[in-house]
Amino acid sequence: MKIQMIHQQGGEKTVAVIFDKGEEIVAGLHDFASAQQLSAAHFTAIGACSDVTLGYFERERKAYKRIALHEQVEVLTLAGNIALSQGQPQVHAHVVVGTADGMARGGHLLEAHVWPTLEVIVVESPQHLRRTIDEETGLALLQMPAEKGEVTNPDAGVTLPRQDVPRSVQPGAAYPRQPR
Description:
Blueprint: E1 2-9, E2 12-19, H1 25-35, E3 40-58, E4 63-69, E5 73-85, E6 88-98, E7 104-124, E8 130-133, E9 140-143, E10 150-153, E11 158-161
Parallel strand pairs: 5-8
Antiparallel strand pairs: 1-2, 2-7, 3-4, 3-5, 3-7, 5-6, 6-7, 8-9, 10-11
């Protein structure tokens, strides 16, 4: 894996992480996040893999069904985030891969081995994100601060207004446009 800082401004950092042949993506991203002590970041990637294990969360079992693809695939898109869970960085990634016949397969990324390369762009935020275990699902989900008002990260000198989406705004509904 090769790492290069490509931009830094106002506490936000953008890093290119290039995986080599045979490297495992999820473990590599976790090792990178731990070494860089990331507490809030998002990433996107493209490339190719020699095999991929996707996950589909089965609600009733509260576990991922493993879907193995033992073939060369193109990584059409890989997107995810990194947040703290029990004080450690946790990688959460979803992937869509393309097979030789042009079909797309996707899901939660459980494991994948790079062949020949994977190009990941990681954007670190100065604001911390935290995951806590949701009792209903058993998953570590991102949590927002409980109180309304300002969200502050004193380490980064950042204060943002907390914004809640009104309950009247339903998924798929048109959101009001913000003035430019």
